[in-house]
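Lecture notes, part 5. Sequence design as translation. It can be helpful to think of inverse folding as translation between two languages: the language of shapes and the language of residues. The source text, in structure tokens, appears below.
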């Protein structure tokens, strides 16, 4: 498309990808120690899933307002505000850990969840800048930065924890380091220009071909959520995205408790395991984006969910660090396929002025489901053991996969 040549799509993609690397590095810490941080100040082991549940619930509640603001104000201001929340949240978690102040830890985890959910909406910007036939690849390119966070996180956090107990002082040091990643992410995202939403509008204006999906013109009034939900393929994509995200984050956030407490491994082993999981989530994402565009949304979405089910059920019999790394890598890769495919479906059937709203609504549902699953998973892990997580998680992702395959192609989605 000739009109798109002057637009700095490649530059903006690289910058957004780099900002997500910082968000990913911080996310690994939250996934690894959010539960242990809160339990440490409350001293109630039965609340093992409460820390992750707070992070996920806060992110879920922030996702829809963030998406709405993105549609009104543009993508960059909202992403920048998210990184600001991340800085404040990490510093509050550090203060609460060091002083044993539960209120500070709780407030910090709320802000950390808000920051993470807002950062993930960078994929909305990716959907803006690429046409439907290359949209999955564009989303993948932006999300690819998260794999560098999977490398940076363990590289920074593991040495800080090596040979130390997971006490308040150690946790405080980790959270302070995480705030540094958020500061860098804020600086990066502020250099993104023009705003990707504006790029999406310019591309839509220049495209004279018929729209691939029943989306309103840019100048039309804002479409209510209830009308967006009636569009073909929206409900299956939302159900699949909810299941994949909820199971992925619940397993990821409870991995620290599984590995450190239940299988009696050294505390610093949790970071390589989380790193392997994040590499599974994002390491092959560019290839995954091409595959989703090539084989179609339906097969990619269902296949990813089934891979997640296989990886989750394997936790029934594995106990070692290396085997857990492989399982969590598979869990991340399955989520990779399902997440990119679901995001592409929801982007295919929306215009730039409504894309943030629908993706934010998706993240609201997924985050609340994930929060509930993390909380219940923590209680189940304490009372029943790892088997409850493995069997329950596998069932939750296998069911929508079989439903989608049985019902056939995701109507309204590209390919």
């Amino acid at each position: 498309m000739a009109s798109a040549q002057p637009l700095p799509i490649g530059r903006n993609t690289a910058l957004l990808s780099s900002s997500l690397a910082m968000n990913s590095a911080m996310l690994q810490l939250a996934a690894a120690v959010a539960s242990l941080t809160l339990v440490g100040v409350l001293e109630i082991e039965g609340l093992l899933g409460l820390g992750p549940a707070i992070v996920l619930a806060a992110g879920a509640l922030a996702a829809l307002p963030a998406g709405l603001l993105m549609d009104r104000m543009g993508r960059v201001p909202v992403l920048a505000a998210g990184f600001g929340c991340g800085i404040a949240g990490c510093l509050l978690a550090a203060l609460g850990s060091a002083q044993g102040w539960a209120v500070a830890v709780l407030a910090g985890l709320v802000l950390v969840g808000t920051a993470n959910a807002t950062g993930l909406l960078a994929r909305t910007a990716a959907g803006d800048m690429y046409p439907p036939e290359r949209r999955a690849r564009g989303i993948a390119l932006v999300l690819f930065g998260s794999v560098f966070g999977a490398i940076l996180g363990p590289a920074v956090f593991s040495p800080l924890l090596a040979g130390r107990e997971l006490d308040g002082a150690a946790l405080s040091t980790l959270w302070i380091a995480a705030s540094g990643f958020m500061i860098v992410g804020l600086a990066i995202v502020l250099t993104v220009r023009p705003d990707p939403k504006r790029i999406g509008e310019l591309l839509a204006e220049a495209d004279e071909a018929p729209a691939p999906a029943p989306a309103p013109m840019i100048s039309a009034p804002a479409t209510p959520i209830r009308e967006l939900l009636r569009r073909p393929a929206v409900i299956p994509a939302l159900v699949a995205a909810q299941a994949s995200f909820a199971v992925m984050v619940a397993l990821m956030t409870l991995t620290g408790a599984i590995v450190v407490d239940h299988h009696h491994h050294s505390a610093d082993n949790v970071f390589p395991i989380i790193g392997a999981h994040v590499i599974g989530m994002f390491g092959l994402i560019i290839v995954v984006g091409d595959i989703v565009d090539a084989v179609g949304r339906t097969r990619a979405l269902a296949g990813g969910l089934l891979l997640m089910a296989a990886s989750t059920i394997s936790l029934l019999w594995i106990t070692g660090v290396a085997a857990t790394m492989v399982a969590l890598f598979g869990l991340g890769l399955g989520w990779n396929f399902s997440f990119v495919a679901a995001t592409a479906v929801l982007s295919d059937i929306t215009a730039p002025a409504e894309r943030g709203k629908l993706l934010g609504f998706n993240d609201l549902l997924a985050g609340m489901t994930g929060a509930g699953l993390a909380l219940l998973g923590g209680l189940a892990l304490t009372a029943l053991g790892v088997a409850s997580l493995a069997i329950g998680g596998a069932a939750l992702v296998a069911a929508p996969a079989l439903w989608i395959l049985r019902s056939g192609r995701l109507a309204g989605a590209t390919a």
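The translated text above is only one of many valid answers, since several sequences can fold into similar shapes. The radius of gyration is 20 Å.
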